[in-house]
Recover the amino acids of this structure.
């Protein structure tokens, strides 16, 4: 139960901070040698239910406005649909591969690679005159969606790679983050629903563990969204990139010590 609470806190923070929730959910059980249900992809995805609730609650007004754009051919909601397709296809095709490739070495590589992308995107970043996500076109939405599909690989960070993709499409940081979170809502919902059958087959004690993890990740996730949106109004992604490099170094050091 304590492990589930800790992982719920980690998921709530790292799902939205661009540091990779999958990396942390894999590394913590590996580092502390936690075994059992908390060290499975099913539990990781169950925790995403919590962050899904956080997204729906925080952006509830946005989703109401989005639904109003349904009759419009170029409505923002249709751009989210287009952006969701790459991750949906990749999720179905690569589910088994993701389950089998959760190694710390892979995470080290992806942590460093995306950190480089973050630093390069910030180096070339110029705050655009326009603001708001309503002006995103279908091409940009699909491009950001392709980036989101890459986040299936542990260590990439869905929010990190999609915010970087948004910056390359000339979005303000906070707008890139807002579109990232809205785009992530159906992706997280879809991945979670695919794992419902695994949760339904869990024993009673395991269901208790699932529920406490989901609840904690929801509460922590809500505040993580709130303060990240405020942070990006004035600060860059560089601190997160440096943290990712540090985490990669710690992983390599731990692997060397335990070798």
């Amino acid at each position: 139960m304590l492990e589930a609470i800790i992982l719920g806190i980690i998921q709530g923070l790292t799902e939205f901070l661009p540091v990779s929730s999958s990396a942390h959910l894999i590394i913590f059980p590996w580092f502390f040698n936690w075994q059992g249900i908390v060290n499975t992809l099913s539990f990781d995805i169950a925790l995403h239910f919590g962050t899904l609730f956080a997204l729906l609650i925080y952006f509830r007004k946005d989703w109401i406005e989005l639904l109003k754009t349904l009759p419009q051919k170029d409505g923002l909601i249709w751009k989210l649909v287009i952006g969701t397709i790459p991750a949906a296809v990749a999720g179905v095709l690569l589910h088994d591969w993701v389950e089998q490739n959760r190694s710390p070495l892979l995470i080290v590589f992806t942590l460093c690679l995306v950190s480089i992308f973050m630093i390069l995107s910030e180096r070339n970043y110029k705050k655009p005159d326009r603001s708001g996500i309503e002006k995103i076109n279908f091409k940009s939405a699909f491009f950001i969606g392709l980036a989101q599909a890459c986040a299936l690989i542990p260590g990439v960070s869905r929010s990190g790679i999609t915010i970087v993709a948004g910056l390359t499409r000339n979005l303000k940081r906070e707008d890139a983050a807002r579109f990232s979170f809205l785009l992530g809502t159906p992706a997280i919902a879809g991945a979670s629903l695919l794992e419902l059958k695994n949760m339904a087959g869990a024993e009673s004690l395991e269901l208790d563990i699932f529920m406490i993890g989901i609840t904690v990740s929801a509460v922590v996730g809500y505040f993580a969204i709130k303060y990240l949106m405020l942070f990006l109004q004035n600060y860059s992604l560089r601190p997160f990139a440096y943290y990712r490099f540090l985490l990669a170094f710690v992983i390599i050091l731990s692997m060397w010590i335990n070798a």
Observations:
- The two ends are 30 Å apart (CA to CA).
- The mean pLDDT is 88.
- Residues 2-258 form one domain.
